[in-house]
Amino acid sequence: VVTRRADYTAPAWLVPEIALDFDLDPRRTRVRARLNVARNGAHDAPLRLDGDGLAPLAVRVDGVDADWRMDGATLEIALSGDAHEVETEVEIAPERNTQLMGLYASGGNLCTQCEAEGFRRITFFPDRPDVLTRYQVKLTAEKARYPVLLANGDPVASGDLDDGRHWAEWHDPFPKPCYLFALIAGDLAANRDTFTTRSGRDVEVAIWVRERDLAKTDHALHALKTAMAWDERVYGREYDLDVFNIVAVDDFNFGAMENKGLNIFNSRYILADPDTATDHDYDAIAAVVAHEYFHNWSGNRITCRDWFQLSLKEGFTVYRDQKFSADQGSAAVKRIEDVRTLRAAQFPEDAGPLAHPVRPDSYIEISNFYTATIYNKGAELIGMMATILGAEKFRRATDLYFDRFDGTAATCEDFVSCMEEAGEVDLTRFRRWYSQAGTPRVTARLVHEAGSGRAMLTLRQTMAPTPGQPVKEPMVVPLTVKLFGADSGREVAPEQLVLLSEPESEIAFESVGERPILSINRGFSAPVVVETDRSAADLGFLSGHDDDPFARYEAMQQLMLDTLVSSVQRGRGDHAPVIDAVRQTLLDGDLDSAFIAEAVLLPSDSFIGDQMAVVDPDAIFRAREALRRDLGRELEGEWREAYEAALANRFEYSPAAKGARRLKNVALGYINASGAPDAASLAFVQFEQADNMTDRQGALATLASGTSDKRVAALDIFYNRYSDNALVLDKWFATQALSSRDDTAQAVEELSRHKDFTLANPNRARSLIGAFAMNQRAFHDAAGRGYRFVADQLIALDKLNPQTAAKLLPPLGRWRRFDKDRAALMRAELERIVATPGLSKDMFEQASKSLD
Length: 852
Ligand code: ARG
Ligand code: ZN
Hints:
- By secondary structure, the chain is α+β, with helices and mostly antiparallel strands.
- Helix content is 41%, strand content 22%.
């Protein structure tokens, strides 16, 4: 069944109030719901309440047994008046809920996940985001087993019963869609604090975890308070309830969930201490805590009219969390990381069978649309509008948006129209970014006439067809551009913003006295691919001298990419310019370590593959390894110096210390690539002496990709040291799945039979299957071993948890990008998946669209 955006109609019935009464038990939970329903407009449609796996035990209207029927999973009730009180009763079994949608059990606790359509697995309700309801919730449960009972909003009352059970009542004064409903019953301890809002209200904030994890919650709590203050300062948004609770659970389908006043998190985005979490984990925790908190305004106070508008809240909220993180440390490095993520996750989406616009037109299963396109490309759209408007008008426009649409379910169009109105700009054509899928490709050619001193920049844009969109209209592409003089090295044309909105356009620069070098898409002002004909020498110059750090990084990446693609396609690429540029960057005393570490990293195997018409995973791997080895050998002294400079530091979580660790581990990788005889023991010493997980895992990753006799020892030591820590064991699985050894496919198959491997836990499933599918050479084993393994695992996982299974499918769908033998093997696995009896609609949508 396909749901289409064009078919949207307002809800026939609204539900201004609900009272929910939960009798909680893992085997049989009784849910009583009392809905005040109100006819919305003049019509005679019955009340239709969504359900999924529910059978009504009782249905009453205004206190008497009602006239109802089931239409498939939907409960249909004929109503005569305009307002009624509808009561239903159902029984559900959280402990048997392996999908982790609705009410389920995790680690002995009971918790919920309702976005997008999980509430219908809890009770009958119009499960759509434009039905906004005030919730009153009563929870009753066995006190010894579930001493803590939490729900949305503010606590209003609680008490004990004489049969060993207890109860708590919560009231959420803000009307909300049911996808924001949440409850928790569990044996949890809290790390508590108070946040005083700028208007002087005290908010009790708390992070709830297992007692033994309490010591790992300080970082998340600190991030939360920092985010609360940041949203006040940067967007003028204050928190609005007396309490804000965060709960961490081990079994969770994605990162976290912004339920009103009760965020529920995958524990990997809460728990951190130096011994078990990497710097990357610390950063991700702060980003996700901030993201979910920011949703209180961009998501909850203003929600989505329908799920086609998902990017309204997700794109904007990602944009907000990215800027928050940029403000906590190096903005340049954060931008580089965000662009790397976009290129690794979103560009391939745009280039593949699952390409969809930021505001999709149709879906079979909405869960499949929580994608990098909706999230990360969606954030880039907001960023482009911010660039076009400028900071001041952008803030005026978001103020207008928050003010005008507070308390409503809005659309992407509503947001853009606020940008237009407060920004005093015409965004008519810009809106194509919401409706057209695909990554624009911009070709830039710069021609200089020495005589007249005129430089002409010709920009051309094209966009390849995507499924269902054979013809594309030109986009509005904001490109920041600047020219440097090839002789003087100085600026010869200042930075300017070019809005490319035609298929082709020319920009003239006057009084350019020397040959200019083009710096373009500075700061990555537009999420496009830019093709230039800049020489290795010019890229080398920019990588050493551009004053925009992103453009500097980009020039280095382009230089590396050109070299690698030429090695793959012509068998030989000139390594010397790359080696020179890397040396120059390494030795530049003005650069911080974090930036250097990012800049000297080679593009990934898969990003190299993305540049080629037909991906040759083995040739790419060989070319990249050869360049790594040369960089390692030629700059061995520099790598060792960088490595040793960072050695003495003791652990500290600060931008400078993080940067030093990052560069240290990159240097360790290059020393290993050089083939130096002491490389493995250097890694092993780091592994054993590390006082933090970044260094320990960094060394382990290096060893795990190598052939030294230290490899097995390190893996065993790591396993034994952390065998009771699920999040660290995930790293142990992922590190091996990402190994560049020849036997990785086989090793991963064996790991899938390890006693600690289970498909029931999404983090564990992703740590092995998800990581392996990212390992281009191993996954694309020419005999199809990797494809078969992943398909087997996904078929098994689909029976337990269709959402998580479907999320892992896209790598198998990229068959068009590979040679015909691999393509045939990949298709065969997709066909096998589609033919599986009882396949979920989640998997069906992903696999069948990938075959088309
Ligand atoms: N709204 C959550 C967040 O981004 C994620 C929910 C994901 N839901 C899903 N069905 N995939 O913060
Ligand atoms: Zn979100």
